[in-house]
Amino acid sequence: MQFLQAFLNGLLVGGVYALIASGMALIFGVMRLVNFAHGAFLMLGTYLSFYGWTLLGLNPYLAFPLWGAVLFGVAVGTYRLLVRRVMGASDFLQILLTEGISLAIIGAAQLAFGADYRQINLPIANRITSLGPLHFSVGYILSFAVSLALVIALQQFLSRTEMGRAIRAVAQNRTVAPLMGIRVERVSAITFGLGIACAGVAGALLLPIFWTNPTVGGPYTLKSFVIVVLGGMGSVQGAALGGLLLGVAEQFTAYTWADRYAEVVNFVIFLAVLLFRPQGLFGGKG
Amino acid sequence: MHVRRLVLTVAALALAACQQSKPGRLGIITALTGTQQAFGQAHDRGYEMALEEINASGGVLGRPLEILKYDDQSKADIAAQGVAKLVDQDKVSALIGSYSSESTKAIVPLVARKGIPLLMPTATADNVLENTQGWSFRLCSGATDYANAMVRFWKEAGTPKSVAIVYENTNFGQANGAAMKKAATEANIPIATEESYTAKSPSYTAMLQKVKEKSPDAIYFASYLLDATSLMHQSRQVDLNPRYFTAAGTGFSTPEFPTEEKGAGKDADHTFSVTQWMPESKWPGSAQFAEKFKAKYGTTPAYHAVQAYVALKVMAEAVRKAGKWDPVAIRDALKATDMPETTFGPVKFDARGQNLHPVLVTQIQKGKYVIVNPKSEATGDPVLPTPKWSER
Lengths: 286, 392
Known about the structure:
The structure holds two protein chains of two kinds.
Chain A: H1 2-31, H2 38-56, H3 60-81, H4 91-113, H5 123-126, E1 128-131, E2 134-137, H6 138-160, H7 162-172, H8 184-206, H9 218-231, H10 236-256, H11 262-276
Antiparallel strand pairs in A: 1-2
Helix pairs in contact in A: 1-6, 1-8, 1-9, 1-10, 2-3, 2-4, 2-8, 2-9, 3-8, 6-7, 6-8, 7-8, 9-10, 9-11, 10-11
Chain B: H1 2-18, E1 25-30, H2 37-56, E2 66-71, H3 76-89, E3 94-97, H4 101-114, E4 118-120, E5 136-138, H5 143-157, E6 163-168, H6 171-186, E7 191-197, H7 205-213, E8 218-222, H8 225-238, E9 244-247, E10 272-275, H9 286-297, H10 303-322, H11 327-335, E11 339-342, E12 345-347, E13 360-365, E14 368-373
Parallel strand pairs in B: 1-2, 1-3, 3-4, 4-5, 6-7, 6-8, 8-9, 9-10
Antiparallel strand pairs in B: 10-13, 11-12, 13-14
């Protein structure tokens, strides 16, 4: 029973990871861009959620589409201004640029919001619900449910819509796609916007169950890398499953061994996948 | 030729010696950003208040005191860089810092190598007193004092049948976990389990579940603030009900912790913690410091702020005694410090550089810290046993 509890709690955390990593996988898959600024955008999502609640009284569980839209806009702007210039450039340049964007965002956040940590006290998120001997935090359930719904919606969008097909076409072949009449620039901007919106919404959903400060995103950038590798580089579906798996792995490690080894296990999984199954656990081709 | 070169070298060396430190400057390292920012902010405020008072009464050695702050971003490697920056570039004559035990441990050997005295205001891990080579001094009490104070309280209030030790996995948590293990074992209290965790994790439920399975009579946490908040919320979630929730100060002993806006709110109620100072402490100026602090910053200070405040005053006094801005002279003056009446109690360092400072035990009752031990200082009685979550 306790195992089941740990497993379910892992899934609940993993749902949010899945959303964060789906965004990163999308950006990587379509743009071949390793986005080191992912966590910084997630942090912006937490602050939007924070000020939305404290200043405007907007419940994060209802207002998240708004925060996603804001971050989509910010990301498209960032793409047009900066990211566009390193498309097709060496990995090294891309990493420098996204890391630079990350530092700039964190620095600006420290100036604008202060280094002070923030949390909100959402009554519903603090409630506990019990199912027999199992106890769950309502906040975690809500964050999980919204995240998972969004991950599924993202996949439907990619497979069913015209835009989604265009995005997948660019992911498959950047050179041939424009010959089919696809505007690669526009698709890239939208992809970057969508990927960042995922991170931002995940941040908005994390706030009621966690806390924030300008440096809160760092660990999530790292976790996303692990998940993206786990799921098969650039596979959005794989990243979603990888996120759930990582959440469960962390909680199992904490339950059976020790919480401090959760991070170790993360990176052992990361290395093992790279060594033995570089196409990812759910990736098709080698 | 040789003579000329020798003269030049000596002149250069002499010049270098002159530039070794600029008069009037003290360096401060603390966590102004990052996960320990709440504590760095408390430090910062304490330093500011002391600086204002020192300069209002004429500064030090006839000139206003200047402090240069360096943010370690709650990271030990950045703290180490801070020593190089403050000493080599800014030419400070002495250092105070850092906030965490992890950061402080990293700078202790560096200041010894550079020959700059360091005053440690808050690092509780006892290993910060290793490898000081006489250059570092600690104002606060340490992990061993914390654990002993808690065990003393338990003996008076009803010795627990077992204790679970839960600590964050850096120098501070490890040291306090180990100190409690030793103190509990000496008092014949069985250790139910020992759990360590990473302070940035969003969920501790699996770990707390594991603790619950051992049904400990008491839990001793060594946690910073954000993790302390999550731990208490999630203890409610997993319905963990020991007789005592206790803690090694720090996160569990901040003005933010019992608030809904910045801490665990109601879930913080009934927790016990060791602490090093309270506004009700009988030392001269404690109540006035608390009032002045509250008027200035809008919150009641915890011990972290007063440690910073007194650390700067102790350092200023050492410079006055030394009579010059010379690191060796300041170190010797620190060694000879004897200030019986500071806001943080008597300050006097033993041969290891440790200031002997008593530890109090508090309990949060209806959102307020109440001193419950030792009896001579108590402002209220402990509420026991801790009510079950379902009955709160």
